[in-house]
Amino acid sequence: MAEETIFSKIIRREIPSDIIYQDDLVTAFRDISPQAPTHVLIVPNVLIPTVNDVTADHELALGRLFTVAAKIAKEEGIAEDGYRLIMNCNRHSGQEVFHIHMHLVGGRPLGPLLAK
Ligand code: 5GP
After folding, report:
1. pLDDT at 116
2. Which residues are catalytic?
3. pLDDT: which is higher, 30 or 2
4. How far is the CA of 100 from the CAs of 13, 50, 59, 90, in angstroms?
């Protein structure tokens, strides 16, 4: 059984956060340290530590991440200009919270995807 992270407490509303969307499968809240004018984390409500732990059972929840990302991007007014969706996995990516999460980042030009 994987160890819970702070994101489980956010999902259960046991600690404060700026939740902007929640349903039976996913929760979206603003990143505590935003890297752009819009920086939202969209997470499955069930604990999946990394993308390496994904199974077919998770497909509905993980698909929902994209539906919700598109909805939030429209609401934030960044859909047409564009934005970036990022999901880090393990050490080389810099993953810090081991409950998978999609970063929705936008509101300014983001530059090249990969640092050289
Ligand atoms: P990672 O590096 O794991 O892909 O991203 C983790 C993200 O979670 C970081 O952008 C970090 O700012 C954010 N974060 C970490 N702890 C909290 C928290 O307690 N509340 C919120 N809203 N965001 C957090």
Report:
1. 56
2. 101
3. 30
4. 18, 5, 13, 10
CA atoms of 84 and 26, how far apart (whole Å): 19
Q: How far apart are CA 6 and CA 27, in angstroms?
A: 13
Confidence category of residue 1, pLDDT binned at 50, 70, 90:
confident
96 lines ligand 1 (CB under 6 A): yes
Q: Report pLDDT digits (tens) over 46-98.
A: 999 999 999 999 999 999 999 999 999 999 999 999 999 999 999 999 999 99
Contacts 24+ apart (CB under 8 A), 61-65: 61/25, 61/26, 64/23, 64/25, 64/26, 65/26, 65/102
Quote the CA–CA distance of 39 and 91 in Å, as a whole number: 21
**R_g over Cα of the chain:** 14
Q: How far is the CA of 111 from the centre of ligand 1 (A)?
A: 21
CA 87 to ligand 1: nearest atom: 4
Segment (H or E) for 72 = helix 59-76
